[in-house]
Write a structure and sequence with these properties.
Layout (H helix, E strand, L loop, with lengths): L2 H16 L8 H14 L6 H11 L4 H11 L10 H17 L4 E6 L5 H13 L2 H4 L2 E7 L2 H9 L1 E2 L9 H7 E4 L2 E4 L1 H4 L2 E5 L17 E5 L9 H14 E8 L14 E5 L2 E5 L35 E3 L11 H15 L3 H12 L6 H13 L3 H14 L4 H13 L3 H16 L15 H12 L1
Parallel strand pairs: 1-2, 1-7, 2-6, 7-8
Antiparallel strand pairs: 3-5, 4-5, 8-10, 9-10, 9-11
Length: about 450
Amino acid sequence: MDKGDIIKSTAKVITRELGLDFPDNRLEELVRGLERSAVLLGGEIDYIHIANEILETQTIPEKYYKELSIALTINETYFFREKPALDFIQEIILKEIRECVGDYTIWSAGCSSGEEPYTIAMLLKEGLTANDLGKVRIVATDISDKALKKAKEGSYTQWSFRETPEIIWQKYFSKKGNEWQISDDIRRLVTFGHLNLFKDSFTRYFKNEGNINLILCRNVLMYFSHDNIRNVSEKFYKMLREKGWFVTSQVELNNELFGNFGRVYSHGALFYRKTETHSLPAVNITIDKSQHHKKAIFPKNLSVKSKPIIFEKRQEAKPAVDNQNEKSYQLAVEFAGKGDFNKATEILDNLLSGEDLKPVFFYLYGTIYSEMGKKREAAEMFRKSLYMEPDNILSSYMLGNLYNNEGKNELAKRYFTNAYKNLAALDPDTEIEGSDGLTAARLAEIIIINLK
């Protein structure tokens, strides 16, 4: 068996044991992960030795489990990530906690080094009274023991604070050498523990199923296969209380894989909710100004809809082509072309809240954000498009452009290369849809210039 076959076979075992998906276009990434594992183990064995032992045992040997879980799940995170989710927690979840009788349980699944659960803890600390805060239990789990160790220590470099409001940074952290130490008041609010989302029982840290109010699992499931995502989604559903919330990254939205949930569009984003009925009851999230905390972290920038759009759970499959959606999309294209971005994004918001999501909706939104100079928002939209359609040429090209302009050369190279590989499979004279007449050959030339 040659090295290529060994890696392909190893990928299947890792998917079965850890849930992580390594299709053919990600095998190089698996090799790099195995190489990192070898380094972590002292460098006395090479990555092929590890792969062969995995194949022989058809599992992850215990002596490799810790290092392999670290090497394959390296994931960048930082405090106060993804503003729509933060606004949602600040306005909706805090209101629920104030009104609930009894305990309120929050689970950060795939918490990495702790920035997400500590962010939640700080939001709650800012927005709740001591009595209301006493109702809350925050549990944070991850597969990486190294990440959990860092989370429990609560010490972070300045890079983790790139989206953190200055007032919060100064209030809840103290300088400790070259790093910043989180306050004990915040650290005590979070319980950390090891959990493999794919293989372990979710009740390990909870009384039983149906006892969690809010599950956050962001930028984790995108590394799983579709079957494994669906499996974890069903387990999340069982763990939630009726009307409990499931928050995933907006890049990971997928109405088929999360079809057992109801959907709520609010704060400019889509959130999932457990419901036993075919349609969600009306939800009123109008802000109660008398309850709004004076020290709210983002008081000037809240984007709250008074009546979020409520959607039914997924029913029978719908036709692949929706004429009304196509007409709406074309209208959005026309408005965008005229520079009327408000009307274009209003139409796109309605399309994105519907059942039949398409990559072009996210791509158009990304181009609009680019024109408006909102680079971060544009990049997120292009990533969503690629999540739904990994071979989307224009989304890869636009991300390459964005990162190239920001001087992030390695990221730019990755996306330009992805676009170029997909262009190479086309006839050179093929006109790229949505590119204003660019042929595959011409766009490939532009990408080559950028890569140089």
